[in-house]
Design brief:
five-stranded parallel β-sheet
Length: 412
């Protein structure tokens, strides 16, 4: 039985390039069929072209980035969000390292000069088609990991930790990362990222009956850090219609489309919070070392045990705003609540406060003690091995190709 052809589309206003690519595919590449050509600049692609793209669902996309590399990379991001299995081959002028890194994050694994030499094009297509052939067309990606950040007391820094952890996981691994604000009444994640979302989690609930990858992409905000955001609703009363079952199904759906889903929960055992606990592979239980926080923490432990199972290793205690000279020691914390601290995050009021007020996550600068502790925790969660000095985790091998620039980005 003949293997099914890989469906491809070329996006380029350059007729000569499109004709050359057609000829190259016909003469030297088997198993790739060109199902569509878009002869428009990126800023003129409209509803009709996007509708046809959805219908034909190409697995391989050729992008001409000669005229507008930045907009072309954004278009690649959009197409990758709609179908994470898509592969991209792009052509264009020489790019700077920062734009190349962004292109890689969009899923552009092959970038060639324009016009590409035939031998170079065929070698790139061999690599891409081999990757596409690894899994059959109907194979499903492994579900991602959901990390719920929870505290039974307000003001302990849950939103700060959730936001910075999501940003760091994405920068560290290059994997698709979604930050979900599940404090549906008074969530503030969008403020911490400095974005103004168009849609919210409640829009997902109302339209979930027709949700697919394309529609999901329209509800997600993409922050400049590369992290995707699903915001809390703008008006607290909108959260009243959020049922646990709908939230549970949505979180399960999101795990099918992202490698990491970081959820900032509310500060109570509400239906959304319990749904997040049920779907979470990891629950970061956040506390500060003060009597009110520890008292609330001790009171919530029986509920957590009922939801996750007694002694569950999914629940990890993270002590935020930690100082070595705190009157209450970590040993006393362990004796009080029956759980040892998994990680401590240093008390760094100035750096964290500045990041909140500017809408720029602190981890983007990476210099403060808080950031160093959070980055170490993120490296462990991602399963990456720290270097001997314990400060800078080992990066994804692809990102290491741009080591000097990546290091500069990591330190602002």
């Amino acid at each position: 039985m003949e293997p099914q052809s890989i469906r491809s589309v070329v996006v380029s206003p350059d007729a000569e390039f499109r004709a050359g690519l057609r000829a190259a595919l016909q003469e030297g590449v088997r198993g790739v069929s060109n199902v569509m050509e878009i002869a428009l600049p990126y800023d003129q692609i409209g509803t009709a072209e996007l509708s046809t793209l959805r219908e034909r669902d190409p697995e391989l996309v050729f992008l001409d980035l000669e005229d507008d590399p930045a907009l072309g990379v954004r278009f690649a991001h959009f197409l990758a969000d709609a179908n994470p299995r898509r592969r991209f081959v792009a052509v264009g002028p020489q790019m700077g390292q920062e734009m190349l890194l962004e292109a890689m994050r969009a899923g552009i694994s092959e970038y060639l000069p324009k016009p590409p030499p035939r031998e170079m094009l065929y070698a790139a297509l061999e690599r891409v088609t081999r990757k596409l052939a690894v899994a059959p067309g109907d194979a499903r990606r492994a579900p991602g990991e959901l990390i719920a950040v929870f505290s039974p007391k307000g003001g302990t820094g849950c939103t700060t930790v959730a936001t910075n952890l999501a940003v760091h996981l994405h920068r560290l691994t290059g994997k698709r990362t979604l930050l979900v604000d599940l404090d549906l009444e008074l969530g503030e994640v969008a403020v911490f990222l400095g974005v103004q979302p168009r849609f919210s989690f409640m829009d997902m609930i109302r339209n979930f009956h027709r949700m697919d990858a394309d529609l999901l992409a329209s509800y997600i905000e993409r922050d400049e850090t590369g992290v995707h955001l699903l915001s809390a609703p703008f008006h607290p009363e909108a959260a009243e219609s959020a049922g646990a079952d709908a939230i549970r199904r949505i979180l399960h759906f999101l795990k099918q489309h992202y490698d990491y889903v970081v959820v900032d929960t509310s500060k109570s055992f509400s239906a959304p919070t319990l749904a997040a606990f049920e779907q979470a592979e990891r629950i970061l239980l956040l506390s500060t070392v003060d009597l009110p926080s520890l008292r609330n923490l001790k009171r919530c432990m029986p509920v957590l045990e009922r939801v996750t199972g007694a002694g569950s290793d999914r629940v990890r205690l993270v002590v935020n705003r930690y100082r070595a000279d705190d009157p209450i020691s970590l040993d006393e914390v362990r004796e009080t609540i029956g759980m040892a601290a998994y990680r401590t995050l240093a008390n760094d009021y100035e750096a964290v406060s500045r990041s909140i007020n500017t809408g720029r996550p602190a981890v983007l600068d990476g210099r403060s003690p808080f950031c160093r502790d959070l980055m170490a925790m993120g490296a462990e969660i991602a399963g990456l091995t720290p270097q001997k000095n314990g400060k800078h985790p080992r990066l994804n091998p692809l990102l290491k190709l741009f080591g000097s620039k990546q290091e500069a980005l990591a330190h602002g």
